[in-house]
């Protein structure tokens, strides 16, 4: 069997068909919301071409199959499942967080209403498990269990994130715990699920998961940096939206926990019930002056290095290891 | 091994421990919402004794294990899973339907807010699959798949139900399809899941599921009848709440599709944007006069009879068949 090249650009095509077949099982009303959210259709249900998202998790899942010396296609149910869980979490998070924009478009709940968006999210979660449990081979059940446990962690992370919004003092460690659950857990699951589906040994699966856990934290750190200093045209999020929503992102929390006048001024701005546009615009420079930006950049680099070390432990084929590192590199250098 | 008696009153105790152990895995914030919703805690998180719900689905799941000649305990992961899926669907449905009361208490979303209630529902769904996938034995994966497919049907049913609210013309057949997905699918899954966990043959699993599908429609018909003519003190729902929310329940749809002056008057009252209290109170008698009540009562009886025939096909032990029929009888005669 010829190995399908699993570079980030080819993945979407490989996964797209399987993803569409899975989502096509939903009832027509729920399908419409899901197709809009996934970028396949406009608000009226007409097809559109623009792909949604980076397909990072499916790419990792297919690579993960190759890490176990299996053809990438054998990781396909895993790739579909992690993308569905990701889509589910974005759909519901947007409702919970009152985020009105997702990937340059109105969030699904603003278009179809909250009830339909809640229901479509539920459907995508259940579908992820359904797809995995249909996969041939013994690894299917273990992979599905990994996705179920990962979803519990995703929820714990979102729950802690919402809790942060009501609190004054947040430590860097608990903020890292939150990101580890909310973001890194699904990336870790993606990095191991293809191998798990192929019945990989525990040590290999563990090493791939550890790689993904560090990669995931790096991903979140870069995401948080982009939220403060990224180009809105590239990120698809309005400028200062993280600041406006008082998001307790890692650089902000690191800055708030630093000593010095900038940290104090920052804390004051975060405690204020109302902030002017000028005050909002002053926040990113204050985070930087308090050392939050440098810390986050260094921590992201450190995590990527540690992630790479897990790949050495895993003794992967050179080509597979190179692709994993390529994705890690993409994550740290991306602009959206 | 001594067979544990699986009468409706003993089930709660048997299932309660396993259910609490599962829900105990959730993060403390999500746990609190779930514990309130399940009736274990009050709004402050203090324990309370009153059990929530009838534990109908867990009772069926344990009986289902006995139908496969397995001890009822082997159906426990299935009993926990179907109760978790049921709890998930009630949590989310209450948000979608704007129902403020559940089992005589304020609905969880009115107490903890929508975001926390959405998240707790997600957690209960994922947990259902997690519990099943940990169950020992080969049947675990097949049972989990059944729950995932059932959840997709649950969602299709709720989606169609929400669609009904926006429409004038609804046929009795599509209303039966809706109930079959929204209500009967999970009851059918409950009736087969214990046997499936034990690795039952396809014909046995199919017969048990067919029993549950007819039982489930009967259950919904009785529920709809109670919604119109039940005692609010027993049902826990305010009087006329189904009528007020324009719920397209089976007796109402049957009445609307009948000929005659009562059906016309009923259609007019359902089309009116505003209705007085007197007009609302006139609806149940109109449904009855148009034949909706008699049709629903007869259809429920017919479904229970058909359900019983599936049990004959399944060739169950006499004691197990008697308990299934006992539950069917309980369902048709209940007052809440």
TrEMBL record, chains A, B:
Name the Gene Ontology molecular function terms of this record: metal ion binding; prenyltransferase activity
Give the keywords, sorted. Magnesium, Metal-binding, Transferase
Q: Name one GO biological process term.
A: isoprenoid biosynthetic process
User: Which CDD domains does the UniProt entry name for this protein?
Assistant: Trans_IPPS_HT (cd00685)
Which family does the entry's similarity section mention?
Belongs to the FPP/GGPP synthase family.
Write the protein's name.
Answer: Polyprenyl synthetase family protein
